[in-house]
Amino acid sequence: MSDTKTFLLPDLGEGLPDATIVEWSVKVGDTVRLDDTLVSMETAKAVVEVPSPVSGKVLKLAGAAGDVIVTGTMLAEFEIDPNLPQRADGQDTGHHHGGGHAPAPQAPAVSAEPAAKPAEAVGAERADSGTVVGAMQSSDAVRSEQAVAVGGVKAMPAVRALARKLGVDLGRVRATGADGVVTMDDVKRAAAGGSAQPGATPVQ
What is the pLDDT of residues 146-199, one digit of tens each? Predict the structure, then answer.
C-alpha cells in the first residue's frame, strides 16, 4: 500500500498566522512532481507560490480560491509515488520568499520630529511620497508596497493575478479601495459585468 502524506501549510513569512488561496495549480487526481508549484497563496506581505513537498497523486486539497488557511493546518494530501523522485527525510524545502525591501526614498530623509520645522515645510514634504517612505519602519515600508502602481493602476499582487485569470484589464476597472487601489471585489464586479474585458468601452 502506498504511503500518504498530509502537507501542512508552512509559515510563509515571519510568524504569519494564515494565508489566503489565490489559485491552485493542481486538482484532485493530478500527479505532481517534487517542487512543482502546488498553489499560489497570498499573505499579509506578498503572493507566494508553494511548491509540492513530494511526488505523487493529489488526494485532497484544503479549499478553493479565496479561502483562508491557518498556518500549520492541512493544505493538501498526497499518495506518494515511490517511482518518482522524493526529497530525503529531514531536508528542508529551501523555499524562502525575498523581495520585501522598500524602494529607496527619492527625496532627502525626513526628520523624525516634524514639529521642529515650520508647518509650511512639513506640509510640502508630506506631499512627496518619497520622504514618507524614508520615515517608515521596515515593516510599514513592506506594507506600503502591497498595492504597487503599475501603468497608473494600484493593486495588490493577488488582485493582479485574479485580473489576469479572469481576463480583466485593470486599467478599465473602477477602483473603490482606499487611495484609488483596485480591490478583489472591483475585479470580480468588472468580470461579471464585462465592462473591463480588453477592447470593451472604458468605464466613465
Answer: 555 666 677 777 787 888 888 888 778 888 877 778 888 888 888 887 665 555
Q: Which grid cell sits at 12?
A: 510563509
Mean pLDDT, range 61-90, rounded to an integer: 89
Model pTM greater than 0.70? no
- Cα–Cα distances (Å) from 111 to 68, 75, 79, 121, in that order, read 40, 46, 58, 12
Residue found under cell 508553494:
50
3-state secondary structure of 93: coil
The boundaries of the domain holding residue 156 are 146-193
- Residue 110 falls inside a structural domain: no
Give the C-alpha separation, 111 to 204, whole Å. Answer: 42
Question: For position 66, which CATH number holds?
Answer: 2.40.50.100
Of the chain, the percentage scoring pLDDT greater than 90 comes to 32
Tally the domains of the chain.
2
* Cα–Cα distance for residue pair 32/26, rounded to 1 Å: 8
Residue where a domain stops, chosen among 55, 80, 105:
80
